[in-house]
Model the fold of this input.
Amino acid sequence: MISKFIITLKMKNKILFLITSIFLASFRLTAQEEGKVIDKTIAVIGDNVILKSDLESQIVSIRAQGVLIDDKARCEMLEQLLFQKLLLHQAEIDSVTVTEAEVESEIDRRMNY
Done:
């Protein structure tokens, strides 16, 4: 009677282990299959990379101010990022050291021209 109970208990443990293993293996496979893109490069200027998250963070900060962003505004924001990176890249080539504030000031000046 006791040996039959022990055999039944061992069998239940093996079945439970097998079910758990199958469940964890299938969970791992589905997690690998999704393969979501976290971030991607949208532009490269010299050694400077502009990521999609860079553009999205600018859009979020503008939206937080209550401004609606359409496709044209999105393109203009990308253009502004490209221009900033281009200025930084050219400054590196020319060995000119500028602060971020100076770059922003120059961009604002040119955008308002």
Remarks:
- The chain has four helices and two strands.
- The two ends are 95 Å apart (CA to CA).
- The chain has two domains: 1-36, 41-112.
- Residues 76 and 82 are 10 Å apart (CA to CA).
